[in-house]
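User: Hey, my collaborator sent me this sequence without any context and asked if I could get a structure. I don't really work with proteins. Can you help?
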Amino acid sequence: MPLGQSSVRPVPTGRTDRARPGAPARRGDTRRRPASGGVRAERLAPYVLVGPAVAVVVLLRLYPLVLGVNFSFTGDGERNGTTVGLDNYLELFRDPLFRTALGNVGLLVLLLPVAVAIPGLLATFIHLRTPGHRFYRSVYFFPAVLSPVIVGAIFNLLLAYDGPLNAVLGGVGLSPVDWLGDPDVAMVTVVGVHVWATFGMGLVVFLAGFATLDSALLDAARVDGASLTQTIRHVIVPGLSRTIQFVTVTTMIGMLTSMFGLLYVMTAGGPEGSTYLPEYYIWIQQGQLNRPALASAASTVLFLIMLVVGLAQISLLRRAGKET
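Assistant: No problem. I've predicted the 3D structure and written it out in structure-token form, which is a compact way to encode the shape of the chain:
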């Protein structure tokens, strides 16, 4: 090579080692690219949206629940603020009124299938477009918008011993019934009024469930000549299993926590304490007898009852849906 001539070869103009913008990465290039701001925002969005709801549940539901359970182990009156262990719970189960309230919870569990079947059957008839179904839909929902106080006052007049219902019974040769004064009848009467006043909400939920039911299954059942009973059992019930679970649990919760207004107006816990429910017992202890610790213990027992009954109902309904 002659002296003074450069030994460095020029780089070809058609090639470059620097990647062009938009060009695909070479094989074997395992360098990680930093996550963009858009990807981070996408990942954080669900937590940001759910965060306020979780905070509300924790602050307004779980925290007061923990405080209530803790307060149930303290005393009332002279022992206010002192730890008493399980004394409040032992006193609860020695109280005949609370035992009556627990017995009425068992009655509610027995009547629950009727309370769920009524809106379910009515929703079935409406979905199958029976004559006048539009009118019935509005009429059936109307009681749900009435206040429990108004409903209780109306039925106090209808169910009075000298009221219209007993007059009708007397007209057909039957003896009058003391609907609200007989301890053996009063609780069933109040539950029946509650079911009448609230089944409209269950009806709406069932109608929403029917909107998700495959209409081809109903058409196939008609073509195969299935009766209404067979259609309900083999097509509608399996197709609405989740809806039935939801209505069952919410109806039971409503019976345990939303009957105070009716009980207060119609019977005030009587006769002879036969219409007591845990909810009404809690109000008596807290609002009239000024025993908040005992009321907290009763509230804890009510919460455990609702939890156990709800889980048991869901388990039974799931098992029944699999068998069907």
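In plain terms: Residues 37-71 form the longest helix (35 residues). You can pass these tokens on to your collaborator as they are.
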